[in-house]
Amino acid sequence: MDDSTLRVSTRSSSSEGLVLAVEGYLDEKGGMALARETHTAHEVEQQRIRIDLGAVFLFNCSGARQLVTLIDELDKLGCEVDLVGVHPPLQRALHFTA
User: What is the model's pTM?
Assistant: First the structure.
């Protein structure tokens, strides 16, 4: 994977719901890809969504805003969203972006 891509792997778990493992660079394009993948998978899955950001090695403000927008959209749809593996720099950006 090159430095400018974001990869999303999905799986379903009876205890965790829909799990999305995110890897790579979370920029605006990556954030839109994550949103697309989440909405596509969510249409056939349960209401609980877990987004694992432990392998996000780089992000920018546009990507953080895309993530916040995605979480807001999922919340309005009645989904329970858990973010896990959020590294401190991204956590701070999400705090300020929200």
Answer: 0.87
